[in-house]
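Design job #97: recover the sequence.
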């Protein structure tokens, strides 16, 4: 389980049932899981929007405070973390609300066969 620089000031625990994801707690008691794929996607935003990156981290914390229990997942359809009573959010759930958008260049060609 990796330590993430952005959250080094938070209490971290290991969840034996979800060993690949970091589990953090805010001082006020709210908690969140951070999946590695989510963090990789987050690093993409950091690379492309360095000036807005602190806003993204602040928004994540705000969402945790509002929802109490959050899993930041790389893919909502097949999350790595399995836990009851948590809501699942993808990176775009955080960034879209800040009007920070990444262009999806993974689509196929515009040309026919």
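Job complete. Output follows.
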């Amino acid at each position: 389980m990796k330590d993430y620089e952005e959250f080094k000031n938070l209490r971290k625990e290991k969840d034996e049932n979800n060993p690949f994801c970091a589990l953090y707690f805010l001082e006020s008691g709210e908690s969140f899981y951070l999946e590695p794929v989510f963090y990789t996607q987050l690093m993409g935003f950091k690379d492309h929007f360095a000036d807005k990156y602190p806003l993204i981290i602040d928004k994540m914390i705000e969402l945790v405070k509002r929802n109490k229990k959050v899993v930041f997942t790389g893919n909502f359809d097949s999350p790595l973390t399995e836990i009851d009573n948590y809501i699942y959010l993808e990176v775009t759930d955080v960034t879209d609300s800040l009007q920070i958008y990444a262009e999806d260049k993974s689509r196929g060609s515009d040309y026919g066969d």
